[in-house]
Amino acid sequence: MGEGASTRDGIAGLDFSAITPEQFAEIVKGLSAKEIDRIARDGELRARILEEVFARMERQFKRDAAGSLQALIRWKVTSAADQAEAVYETAIADGTCTVTEGRSDATPRVTLAMGDADFLKLVSGNQSPVMMFMMRKVKITGDVAFAAGLNRYFDIPKP
Q1: In this structure, what CATH number is given to the domain that contains residue 30?
Q2: pLDDT tens, 98-122?
């Protein structure tokens, strides 16, 4: 088996609920964009990873930092592996964070669009959001200043 198969099998065998955000960040740090794209070819595994990442968003939310913030963040994760675009929404309201899969009719304050590899690098703290924007790895529609400060509302690992 090639390197891509062993990487995919290693990720597929993980119990995501048993690893910490810091451990996840280290795993992502060790993967190249090509390896992540290979993993994303497995639609079931890709969906499992995205579901876990977005579920953790609710747990990693910094309630005190958000205060009375009211905002809807739409995430569009595109795939280089012929998988459908994944859309999730993060609603911040009244000191809570709720994540839903799919697109609502609500107007988001900001929409962030990026590929699988860039998304995982961003949410695991392995890439600077500002650098990603400047390098056009993430497309931002809406309130760019708000998007630049999103990391203050979530406890993002420091790999």
Answers
A1: 3.30.1050.10
A2: 999 999 999 999 999 999 999 999 9
